[in-house]
User: Fold this.
Amino acid sequence: MNERYERAGRILYWLVPPVWCLALYWQGLFTWFQADDFAWLNLQVHSWNDLWKALFTPQAQGTVRVWSERLFFIVFKDLFGIHAAPFRIWVFLTQIANLLLIAQITRRLTGSRFAALTASILWISNSALTVVMGWNSAYNEALCAFFVLAAFLALLRYIDTSDPRFNRLQWAFYLLGFGTLELNTVYPLLAASYTALCAKQRLRKTLLLFAPAVVFTAIHFVLIPKPSGGPYRLHLDGAVFETLVTYWTWAVASRQMAILGGAGSRLEPVVVTIFTITLLGFAIWRTLRRDFLPVFFLAWFAIFLLPVLPLRDHVSDYYLTLPAIGLAMLMGYALTVAWQQRFVWKLAGGALAVCYLTIMLPVDRAASGWYYQRGQTAESILTGIIRVRKLYPGKTILLAGLTDELFELTISPNSLGAIGVNDVYVTPESRAHLYSEPLLDDYYTLSAQLALESLTRGSAVVYEVHDGKLRDITAPYSERIRRKPGG
Assistant:
């Protein structure tokens, strides 16, 4: 009987986190491309020279993320075209791998299968993960997490076995991580923190990991110019502490709690205070007992926030993807220890876990649905444009009824190039209702005179965006524009 329970426990250990992830974010599997996705889908590769430029030309604030943005979009578009499902499936598979790695690491550190299972569930439930689970352009966070977790697990295996193969494996994952996200540069600090606290005999070995990080950072700052203004300007001043407090608040109480207003807004300080006192108190208590794991988990949270703390004007909850791993492991460990104490501590630990999930889960479902609806709208409009182009090859397509949000979502970020359609413009009067942007004026606007001439010659069609769909209004629009004074 005990053997059957043990087998069932092992099955649940591996099965529950992926099932929980799918149950929570299933709509993300069916979410279409949107916004920045089209910039990466628009990468044109026709030769080896094109491939080199596509992979290594700095883009998006000077970043060069070879695996998580360039190759991810190039390879999947080449294999599957503009079908989003394979992209989404790959993102989910990466996240499931991350869940299993978190479980393995937490079990090795704490010796508890319960802590491991809890940590994975709490991490994927954090509302910061909704961006990664709903938007392909945030895949860099998921893939960076994979390389960091794989490298750290290899480090733990090396510490346990002294087998140099695990050290080489750590280095392999660590170096590959530089092609995913700049956040990878702080991995040596994570490794050094753990060995300094829990495995001092390996500390000197981990110091060698800093060399590639220093070289990468130097190259990044010297060869890639940093913005002197705007949201990505670095602010190395007292604002970093305010930013840290903001991220901690979002990590334990969700970004959405404050903006909901009413009871949610009033309760946020209470919830944050309770979680802060509990988790810091737990870390201090365990430290006094010579258990430094809680301190390490808090260090994990802080270390992966370090590169983004100077971005005072660009505070985004998806930056919590990697820091939230440390928080989830800390909470999983605290719950495990609480469960070994008297009933009152069991009750307190369970209540905090329920509180955390009560805050996060509704946000997860709502955000997942929001990304899904945005994707549906983008797919409807852009596939509609493809159909119009097939119906009217060679004709100019004029779009009416676009809002700023729809323009940004579907037209502005290179989407027309990604779907292979040109000669698409907004109608002249629509331009007056959209915000001023050089891209809009340079590429997507026809003058009223040119629009009238094209319609008169029969070389243009007009479609109105209505409820996320395209409706042919060429005839009534042509009649209306001709009747205008001066028409």
